[in-house]
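[step 3/7] inverse_fold.run input=structure_tokens len=1602
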């Protein structure tokens, strides 16, 4: 037969299968290149063989429609290539299933390459041993992919038996494999496997296209090389685990546990293809147990073992440990790798050099990882820390639950007939955990896991627990242990800051120590770990992450400065000691019960509650209103959900919540795939591409080289796949991973190549424009942001600094910057951060941030202005494009490309002023800016580098909520965590008492059925105790002293709205504090989700202090604020007295309009103190919060009978509205713990006179002593003198309060008392008096401002400011109260002191808040000022000056209920006459008393001539409270160096007041300075120091009291 061969290739359209181009070459060298099919048929008609690459199932399939191809014998070089070139580097012309080429769409060129390849294949075949030729021909001859080749070379098949193959491959395959069946059933697969076996190169692999087309290759490989018979040469040598352990690792034998070779059994089970679950102790050889089979399978079947590990640091450690042993089979792919390192790792896996791949569960969502696994023979999945599958494990992770779904999908895509086996490893696991792991893999993959567990204990470890009451005692123990052992030591702590602190303290004490924790920079972590491993330091102080996978054999001391949060973790961490079995090691715990509470607090703050997941679900529903699939970052979802984005690990929490939603079927997370493609190559070959690249000035030199690599990769891979195909090799992440480039670089270069015409300009971006928006509206929003951004740039320092965002916002508002809000400022800072213009530095909170500029100021300003111009253009362009769209949806989709926008912009530059030409990066920056400020919604394109997740919403009904059943597994896990903390605490207590009993306790925990374990060690009520996330001691301290009714309120965690009508003395404050404690502990409300609002700073401070006493430092973060303070925060402004009238109204309106950042108002619980005092604006704020948080609970506590501030808008109707409109559950607190029985009886009888009350039942006196109630009725209008006479006569024991209707009455009484040498304190309101204006306070604040470098006040600055205050104002009457105020602030702010908190504290506080309550001093005030106070003895002066309406009755009721032991009423009206007064001492006094002869008047701002002080500053600046003044006819003088200097003058209004007193015979006898204040007039630029004097007036007459 005349053999005439013609080499052909064709270009076929993927869309319509049309023949686009044809090429062919004859052996003579004649060529054909045309699209004419007829000419092509003529050209090939003289041939009898057609040869090409992938022609059998591709080219010939489409040519058959036009040509009789059956008349030709076909030869396909594709199928021959892996058979004849199985060894790396395979053939130079072939990559996977494609011919390598530097030219695109040139079939002639590819036909020539096919010719060259074919002849080399013939040459290679001829060089094979005859037996191999015979085997190949016999196996492959019947198949069209191969028959033509054998016919061409004249090779015919001979009968083939299994003997021929066994003989040819002796020692390379199992002698007992059923080869006969393989010959019949899988001949092609068998040939490919034998080719790979023959090449004898462990790095060479079966090409991915073969695995796709012949999936049975894997099974054939398994039968020949992976199934051990145990009796042949191959199996005895290559499949003997013990021999291979010695060869690979140098270990002579496996470890033995209690006489049982469990490690060997587990390794051999893996080699036999079983799925296993092993439980070995820490340091028990877990890693070798899976690494050995993985390396052996890599050598035998070129298999890949995928190891899933939760920690990136652990992956690196394992790979490094193998490399130290000279084993280079393992790689890790994780987020810490640079693009080049990632590329190298990907290439090692793809090429077959790696047989072990370490990844995290999150990496399973990477398309690159999935493609890698598809291209390799994955022989096993190894899951480390397998307890993460179980809600009963100590570290349940929702993302682990995706593993089974991924493996199942991989098996289906690869069409595997047998499941991929898995190996699960954990160091510690309870029986329930083991059951959960087994059930999971049985349910998901149908696998039965065989368990290999050891009960062996580490006999070389000795345990000890030392009780330490204080932190210092703990530290002294620690230092003593380290110095006495003098060996490598690991100290475990629970918090990152503790690691730093203790390491530093040890260093100061001469012990070489370094910290290690998760928040350190990677470089520092690695350096510190290396220093410890190399014995350069003795001690490492670390959080629990340290030590996993670290094999340091000489650690002989592990100290837990803070006990672990579970026995599992404790056993693992203490197991870092004594890794060398020949060494004895000590494991010590320094313990007190407060350590457990710290774990409970940390658990509460880190756990994902059902409410948290519901918030994320609501955020996703909001984000997917107009489209079911979104691409966004975890941080953006957190912000949408209203989560505080300053909380650590916020993004991890978001991803966990999304995983929980995915598990429950609410959403589906897409793969981490950027939908950006480098498609539509517009050049014919590489040389044309290089010419264009070299000629373009848009590429830097480095960019040109990277661009060449990208275009070459695309051409050689023939990437003509359409965009939208996630597996297309033109996808950006594919290119990035394969070329070792950053994704951002690839996207930028692809866009630039589109710009210069190398690639087609594909519209890979979408914008969504709201139909309700107008171009003008969006422009106005842009202008507001730009103006604010320019303002911030001007205000920012050029160097790093800390910025108070509220203060910055206030400045902007004062400077008329429209749109200035903290929310908008944070948006700008967020944009700057992701663009790399700044970086955050130091500590930051919601209102404070440390920033470090990374830009040149002038350059940055130019960029800003250019961006502004581009943004304006883009808005117009996008609106123009939207007008051409016919979509009827609320959000109009507009598709475009960066290149298209740039070209449009350049065509319009005549209308735009730019300081430099626009580039693609500028268009990108402008689009990103518009996206972040909310002007447009963008999707796709370059945004993939900022948006890390793709989420598709599956449940489209907005009414459907994430349910308790969906949360069951997570809830079970958190309940287990609570019990684990209790259990580890029980272990510590047992260890102190009985060492053997403690060890038995641990053994029983791991080996007994869990319910039996609990029944054995936690009997009766103790079983209930371990259900609570609080120690039993703390629980009893919190709740044992409460009454039944109080407990009912505390335990009500079901009512959405609660109203507590709390009678006087009923323990309202106590109930609220304990309720807050219960919310934070038992109900697990996170501190940032809890808001308590009060009506005074004093109340807020008291709640904070009392809560701190109950719950410790966790209270520091709880938001307990006044209404005004909270609203100023929402408005983004520091608190000030001037705007208090409108701030609550403004804040409520901003919430309603959606102008407040969601994170500021996302609350789970709002608690309202003194709810009866809410005004219309206050209630509007509460309602606004309710409407923003659909599941928010409201707890309102108050007493409508004590609503006495109607004059400022307060109305208890709003408290009642919660019941009538919102269905609040009402609780009545009626037990009065304050007053004795008769006082309660009297107030009960009186309160019945008030109409429209909430409470129907009487208050109940808890105290059964009778108490004294006296009522003296007068005819006289003046009752001050007889009241004081009675007080002096009675000589009461305990505190005394005297309460009046008016300030004037109170001032008279104070003077009478002082004249009788009784200490008296007047509490009164002063119009225009603000504590921040007080000279003493201002002195302190000024010192802080001048010396505090950052918003955070250092201890040194604080101390110095206090000393200066004491020096400058020594002898001032106000100094004592000021120091008391500072002490209060210190108590509340124990951890850190911020300037803004300090200013807010003083701006909201009142001078009287800091009077010291004591029995020696009588308190005198109006009844309004008495509210909230209590006294042993109360005197009420009630005159008939006012009409007795309900408002007045409530005020009187407040006065009555202040008394604890004695109540003395002095009145001159008949209000009490209709009451039963049998138990009351009633007296009648008919004397007509005169007004007192002496009275003190404290003048206010209205009473002095303020401008008069302006030129007297030199003298007034020397004044202090208490400075004596001289009075002369309305003027004040001060004596200075023997001279009387005029310093002040009263106002005309005060002159008139004094004239009235003069007519009554009074004259001013003395005067002194009561307050020195700063004041600023409306037209003034600077402040003026003024003083408010107190006048002592005397009238001639008799002595009032004898």
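[step 3/7] decode complete -> sequence:
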């Amino acid at each position: 037969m005349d053999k005439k061969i013609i080499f052909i290739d064709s270009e076929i359209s993927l869309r319509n299968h049309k023949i686009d181009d044809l090429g062919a070459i004859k052996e003579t060298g004649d060529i054909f290149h045309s699209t004419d099919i007829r000419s092509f048929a003529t050209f090939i008609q003289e041939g009898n063989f057609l040869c090409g690459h992938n022609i059998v199932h591709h080219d010939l399939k489409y040519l058959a429609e036009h040509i009789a191809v059956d008349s030709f014998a076909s030869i396909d070089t594709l199928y021959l290539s892996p058979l004849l070139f199985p060894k790396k580097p395979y053939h130079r012309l072939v990559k996977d299933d494609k011919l390598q080429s530097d030219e695109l769409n040139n079939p002639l060129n590819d036909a020539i390459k096919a010719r060259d390849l074919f002849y080399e294949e013939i040459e290679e075949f001829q060089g094979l041993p005859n037996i191999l030729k015979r085997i190949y021909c016999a196996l492959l001859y019947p198949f069209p992919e191969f028959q033509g080749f054998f016919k061409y070379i004249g090779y015919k098949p001979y009968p083939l038996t299994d003997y021929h193959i066994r003989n040819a491959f002796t020692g390379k395959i199992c002698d007992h494999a059923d080869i006969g069946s393989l010959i019949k059933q899988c001949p092609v697969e068998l040939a490919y496997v034998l080719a790979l076996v023959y090449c004898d190169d462990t790095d060479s692999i079966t090409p991915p296209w073969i695995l796709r087309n012949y999936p049975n290759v894997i099974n054939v490989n398994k039968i020949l090389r992976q199934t051990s018979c145990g009796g042949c040469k191959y199996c005895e040598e290559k499949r003997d685990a013990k021999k291979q352990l010695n060869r690979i690792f140098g270990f002579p034998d496996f470890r033995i546990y209690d006489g049982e070779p469990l490690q060997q059994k587990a390794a051999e089970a893996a080699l036999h293809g079983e799925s296993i679950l092993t439980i070995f102790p820490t340091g028990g050889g877990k890693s070798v147990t899976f690494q050995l089979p993985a390396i052996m399978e890599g050598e035998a079947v070129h298999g890949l073992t995928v190891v899933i590990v939760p920690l990136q640091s652990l992956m690196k450690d394992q790979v490094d440990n193998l490399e130290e042993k000279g084993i280079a089979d393992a790689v890790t792919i994780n987020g810490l790798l640079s693009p080049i390192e990632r590329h190298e790792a990907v290439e090692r896996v793809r090429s077959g050099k790696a047989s072990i791949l370490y990844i995290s569960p999150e990496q399973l969502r990477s398309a690159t990882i999935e493609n890698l696994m598809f291209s390799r023979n994955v022989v096993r999945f190894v899951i480390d820390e397998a307890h993460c599958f179980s809600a009963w494990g100590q570290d349940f992770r929702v993302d682990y639950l995706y593993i089974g779904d991924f493996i199942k999908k991989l098996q289906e895509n690869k069409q595997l007939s047998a499941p991929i086996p898995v190996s699960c490893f954990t160091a510690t696991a309870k029986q329930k955990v083991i059951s959960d792991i087994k059930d999971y893999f049985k349910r998901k993959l149908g696998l039965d896991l065989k368990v290999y567990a050891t009960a062996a204990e580490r006999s070389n470890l000795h345990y000890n627990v030392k009780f330490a009451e204080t932190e210092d005692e703990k530290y002294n123990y620690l230092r003593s242990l380290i110095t006495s052992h003098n060996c490598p030591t690991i100290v475990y702590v629970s918090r990152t800051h503790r690691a730093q602190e203790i390491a530093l303290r040890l260093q100061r004490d001469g012990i070489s120590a370094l910290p290690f924790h998760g928040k350190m920079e990677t470089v520092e972590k690695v350096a510190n770990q290396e220093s410890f491993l190399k014995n350069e330091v003795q001690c490492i102080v670390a959080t629990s992450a340290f030590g996993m996978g670290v094999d340091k054999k000489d650690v002989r001391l592990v100290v837990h400065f803070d006990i672990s949060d579970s026995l599992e973790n404790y056993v693992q961490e203490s197991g870092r000691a004594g890794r060398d079995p020949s060494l004895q090691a000590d494991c010590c715990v320094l313990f007190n019960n407060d350590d457990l509470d710290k774990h409970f607090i940390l658990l509460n703050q880190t756990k994902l509650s059902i409410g948290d997941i519901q918030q994320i679900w609501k955020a996703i529903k909001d984000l997917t209103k107009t489209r079911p699939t979104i691409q966004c970052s975890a941080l953006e979802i957190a912000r949408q959900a209203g989560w505080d984005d300053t909380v650590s690990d916020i993004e991890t929490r978001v991803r966990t919540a999304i995983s929980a939603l995915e598990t429950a079927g609410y959403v589906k997370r897409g793969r981490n795939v950027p939908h950006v493609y480098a498609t539509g190559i517009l050049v014919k070959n590489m040389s044309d591409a290089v010419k264009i690249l070299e000629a373009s000035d848009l590429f830097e030199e480095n960019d040109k080289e990277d661009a060449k690599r990208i275009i070459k990769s695309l051409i050689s891979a023939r990437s003509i796949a359409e965009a939208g195909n996630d597996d297309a090799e033109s996808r950006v992440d594919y290119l990035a991973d394969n070329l070792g480039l950053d994704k951002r670089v690839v996207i930028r270069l692809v866009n630039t190549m589109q710009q210069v015409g190398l690639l087609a300009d594909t519209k890979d971006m979408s914008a969504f424009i709201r139909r309700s928006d107008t171009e003008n509206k969006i422009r106005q929003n842009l202008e507001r942001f730009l103006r604010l951004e320019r303002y911030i740039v001007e205000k920012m320092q050029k160097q790093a600094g800390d910025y108070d965002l509220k203060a910055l916002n206030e400045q902007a508002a004062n400077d008329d910057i429209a749109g200035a809000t903290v929310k908008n400022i944070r948006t700008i800072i967020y944009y700057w951060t992701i663009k790399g213009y700044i970086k955050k530095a130091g500590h930051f909170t919601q209102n404070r941030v440390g920033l470090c500029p990374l830009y040149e100021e002038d350059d940055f300003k130019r960029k800003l202005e250019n961006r502004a111009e581009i943004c304006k253009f883009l808005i117009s362009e996008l609106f123009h494009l939207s007008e051409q769209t016919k979509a009827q949806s609320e959000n109009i989709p507009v598709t475009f490309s960066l290149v298209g926008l740039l070209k449009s912009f350049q065509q319009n530059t005549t209308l735009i002023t730019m300081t430099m030409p626009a580039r693609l990066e500028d268009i990108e920056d402008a689009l990103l800016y518009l996206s972040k400020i909310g002007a447009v919604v963008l999707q796709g394109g370059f945004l993939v580098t900022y948006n890390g997740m793709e989420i598709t919403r599956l449940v489209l009904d907005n009414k459907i909520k994430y349910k308790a059943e969906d949360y069951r597994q997570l809830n079970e896990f958190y309940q287990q965590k609570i019990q684990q903390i209790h259990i580890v605490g029980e272990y510590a207590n047992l260890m102190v008492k009985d060492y053997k009993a403690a060890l038995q306790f641990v053994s029983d925990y791991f080996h007994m059925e869990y319910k039996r374990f609990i029944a054995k060690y936690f009997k009766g009520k103790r079983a209930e105790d371990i259900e609570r996330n609080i120690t039993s001691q703390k629980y009893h301290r919190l709740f044992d002293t409460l009454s039944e009714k109080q407990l009912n309120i505390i335990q009500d965690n079901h009512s959405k709205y609660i109203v507590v009508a709390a009678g006087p003395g009923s323990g309202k404050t106590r109930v609220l504090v304990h309720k807050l404690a219960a919310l934070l502990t038992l109900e697990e409300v996170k501190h940032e989700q809890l808001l308590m609002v009060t009506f005074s700073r004093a109340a807020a401070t008291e709640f904070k202090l009392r809560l701190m006493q109950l719950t410790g430092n966790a209270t520091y973060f709880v938001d307990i604020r006044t209404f005004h303070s909270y609203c100023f925060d929402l408005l983004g402004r520091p608190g000030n007295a001037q705007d208090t009238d409108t701030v609550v109204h403004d804040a409520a309106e901003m919430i309603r309009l959606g102008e407040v950042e969601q994170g500021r108002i996302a609350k789970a619980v709002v608690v309202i103190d003194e709810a009866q005092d809410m005004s219309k604006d206050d209630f509007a704020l509460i309602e606004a919060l309710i409407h923003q948080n659909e599941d928010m609970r409201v707890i309102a506590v108050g007493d409508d009978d004590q609503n006495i501030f109607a004059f400022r808008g307060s109305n208890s109707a709003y408290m009642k509205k919660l019941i009538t409109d919102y269905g609040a559950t009402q609780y009545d607190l009626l037990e009065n713990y304050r007053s004795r029985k008769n006082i309660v009886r009297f107030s009960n009888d009186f309160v019945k006179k008030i109409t429209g009350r909430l409470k129907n039942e009487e208050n109940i006196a808890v105290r059964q002593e009778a108490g004294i109630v006296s009522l003296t009725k007068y005819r006289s209008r003046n009752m001050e003198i007889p009241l004081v006479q009675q007080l002096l006569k009675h000589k009461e024991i305990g505190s005394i309060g005297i309460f009046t209707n008016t300030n004037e009455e109170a001032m008279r009484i104070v003077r009478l008392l002082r004249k009788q040498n009784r200490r008296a304190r007047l509490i009164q309101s002063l119009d225009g008096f603000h504590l921040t204006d007080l000279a003493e306070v201002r002195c302190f604040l000024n010192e802080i401002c001048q010396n505090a470098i950052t918003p955070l006040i250092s201890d040194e600055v604080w101390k110095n400011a206090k000393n200066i205050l004491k020096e400058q104002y020594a002898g001032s009457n106000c100094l004592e109260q000021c120091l008391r105020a500072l002490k209060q602030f210190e108590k509340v702010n124990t951890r850190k002191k911020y300037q803004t908190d300090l200013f807010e504290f003083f701006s909201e506080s009142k001078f009287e808040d800091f009077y010291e309550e004591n029995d020696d001093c009588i308190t005198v005030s109006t009844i309004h000022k008495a509210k909230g106070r209590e006294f042993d003895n109360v005197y009420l002066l009630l005159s008939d000056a006012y009409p007795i309406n309900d408002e007045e009755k409530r005020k009187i009721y407040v006065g009555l209920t202040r008394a604890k032991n004695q109540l003395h009423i002095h009145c001159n009206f008949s209000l009490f006459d209709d009451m039963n007064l049998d138990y009351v001492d009633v007296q009648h006094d008919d004397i007509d008393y005169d007004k007192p002869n002496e009275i003190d008047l404290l003048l206010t701002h209205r009473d002095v001539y303020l401008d008069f002080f302006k030129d007297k500053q030199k003298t007034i600046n020397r004044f202090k409270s208490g400075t004596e003044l001289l009075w002369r006819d309305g003027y004040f003088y001060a004596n200075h160096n023997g001279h009387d200097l005029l310093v002040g003058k009263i106002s005309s209004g005060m002159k008139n007041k004094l004239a009235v007193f003069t007519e009554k015979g009074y004259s001013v006898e003395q005067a002194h300075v009561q307050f020195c204040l700063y004041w600023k007039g409306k037209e003034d630029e600077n402040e003026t120091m003024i003083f408010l004097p107190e006048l002592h007036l005397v009238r001639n007459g008799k002595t009032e009291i004898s």
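[step 4/7] annotate
The first strand starts at residue 5 and ends at 12.
The first helix runs from residue 37 to 44.
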